[in-house]
């Protein structure tokens, strides 16, 4: 019993407990920083893909305008692949004509909806296309 009391009294071995506790805290801090870094990377990737999907949707809408200018009866053949993404088009006839362009990159999807008025005479090319609205969804 005397041997145990002298060890407790002079605190022999307490530095090992302190070192283990410090290593545990530093390990937890490192794990937290790794998780934070992976979350930041995921957020940046999602933002980049969202912007790319929006650009693809805009490109699709502009392509539809050009195709309709040269051929008012043009119908899209979906999807169109560009780089790491794609876009698809839907054209609804009416007055005004509705153009929906959906851009997709990985899991990000963006949509652009245009309402346009196409002015042409029967048997002649399109004289003008007026964009009534251009909305992002």
Can you give a write-up of this model?
The protein has 137 residues and is an alpha+beta fold. The chain has a single domain, classed as Pantoate--beta-alanine Ligase, Chain: A,domain 2. It has helices at residues 2-10, 14-70; strands at 80-82, 85-92, 97-105, 108-120, 126-136. It has a five-stranded antiparallel β-sheet with strand order 1-2-3-4-5. It is rod-shaped, with a radius of gyration of 31 Å.
Core attributes:
137 residues, Pantoate--beta-alanine Ligase, Chain: A,domain 2, five-stranded antiparallel beta sheet, 48% helix
What is the topology?
Blueprint: H1 2-10, H2 14-70, E1 80-82, E2 85-92, E3 97-105, E4 108-120, E5 126-136
Brief rundown of the structure:
Helices cover 48% and strands 32% of the residues. It has 137 residues and is α+β, with helices and mostly antiparallel strands.
Strand adjacency order, main sheet = 1-2-3-4-5
Termini distance? Answer: 78 Å
Shape: rod-shaped
Level-2 CATH architecture = 2-Layer Sandwich
Q: Can you identify the CATH class?
A: Alpha Beta
Please tell me how large the radius of gyration is. 31 Å
So how many helices? 2
By DSSP, the count of extended strands is 5
Query: Which parts are unreliable, with pLDDT below 50 for 5 consecutive residues or more?
Result: none
Which structural class do you get from the secondary structure elements? alpha+beta
Rounded mean pLDDT is: 88
Tell me the CATH topology: Pantoate--beta-alanine Ligase, Chain: A,domain 2
The level of helicity is 40-55%
Order of helices and strands: HHEEEEE
How many structural domains are formed by the residues?
1
> For the report, how would you describe the main beta sheet?
5 strands, antiparallel
């Amino acid at each position: 019993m005397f041997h145990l009391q002298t060890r407790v009294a002079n605190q022999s071995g307490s530095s090992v407990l302190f070192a283990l506790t410090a290593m545990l805290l530093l390990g937890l801090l490192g794990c937290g920083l790794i998780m934070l870094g992976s979350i930041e990377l995921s957020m940046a990737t999602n933002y980049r893909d969202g912007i790319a999907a929006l650009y693809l949707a805009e490109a699709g809408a502009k392509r539809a305008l050009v195709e309709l200018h040269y051929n008012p009866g043009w119908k899209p053949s979906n999807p169109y692949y560009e780089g790491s993404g794609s876009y698809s088009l839907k054209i609804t006839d009416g007055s005004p004509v509705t153009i929906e362009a959906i851009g997709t990159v990985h899991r990000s999807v963006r949509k652009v909806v245009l309402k346009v008025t196409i002015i042409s005479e029967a048997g002649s090319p399109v004289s003008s296309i007026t964009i009534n609205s251009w909305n992002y969804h």
